[in-house]
Write a structure and sequence with these properties.
single chain, 121 residues, alpha+beta, 2 helices
Length: 121
């Protein structure tokens, strides 16, 4: 009986995530695609640290069981993108369904940490 309830709950959550992804692609409005449980700041080389202050990244990805895949970054300093991708692969999301076309936007502090304001409440 509990398995049926879980499956029904998952069906309702999948449709709402799909609607959010469609709204994002159609209207360029991209709400968070899954509750973030773990955020990992990038490890930035010393010579690139000056690029962190206020750097903003728009990350397009897919979610599989809360883990991001197929990560593409279209904005932000190019020199930081490899470090961002590496750290973003370690992020974990609360969404357990598969999501294609998810988008997250976040900025870095001058010390190259992910700004806390990026965490959706």
């Amino acid at each position: 009986m509990k398995i049926k309830q879980i499956l029904i709950a998952l069906l309702f959550s999948v449709s709402s995530v799909t609607e959010a992804v469609e709204a994002c692609s159609e209207y360029d409005y991209c709400p968070p695609q899954g509750t973030i449980h773990v955020m990992v700041s990038p490890k930035v080389s010393r010579e690139n640290r000056k690029l962190c202050d206020g750097a903003t990244f728009v990350v397009h990805f897919s979610l599989r069981m809360g883990e991001p895949e197929n990560i593409v970054i279209n904005s932000g300093p190019e020199a930081l993108r490899p470090a961002i991708i590496k750290s973003f692969k370690r992020w974990r999301f609360g969404a357990t369904e598969e999501v294609n076309g998810a988008v997250e936007t976040f900025s870095l502090t001058p010390a190259c940490f992910v700004q806390k304001s990026a965490v959706p409440w």
